[in-house]
Amino acid sequence: MKKLKxxxxxxxxxxxxxxxxxxxxxxxFFEEIEYSEFSxxxxxxxxxxxxxxxxxxxxxxxxxxxxxxxDRCLEVMDFPVDIVETLxxxxxxxxEDETDEILILPESEYQIDISRLINEYITLxxxxxxxxGDDENGVSxxxxxxxxxxxxxxERHTIDPRWEKLKNIKLD
Length: 172
Prior knowledge:
two-stranded antiparallel sheet
C-alpha cells in the first residue's frame, strides 16, 4: 500500500472551495489493490473535491481502458472505461445514513483514501460479460480461429435421446 500514498487526500487543512486532483491509474495501481479484478490498465482519474463547512463533495471523472479477457474467444482485450460519479462525504458517527452516494467519516479522520473508491467505480462500471465488439460490417472482432473451434464443438454436441423424448411431453 506504500505506492498508493498518492491516493490519500488530507482534507482537514484544505480551505473551503474546489480543489482539483489528477491520478494516474495503471498496472502498479492494480497490483497494490487487494482482490482487484484487473491487473493491467491505463486510466486517468480526475477529481474535483468541493469542501464545504460540514461536507465534502467528490466529483470523479475516470477515463481510459482496462485489460480483460474476452468471454467468447478468451483473447485479452482493452475494454474502454468512461465514468462520471459523485460522492458526498459527511462527518459523524451515524452509519445508518450511509448509501452508495453518501460516505460517513468519523470526525477524527483527517484524510480520505481515494484508491478504494476509484477501484470500486471501475469494477462496477464493467459489464458482467466482456466480449469483443463488431466491426462496421457486423463481423465479430473475436479471434476467428477460436470462433471456428467453438462452432465445431457445438455441432458435435448431440442431445441424449431420453431428453429428446421429454420435449414431446405436453403438460396442460
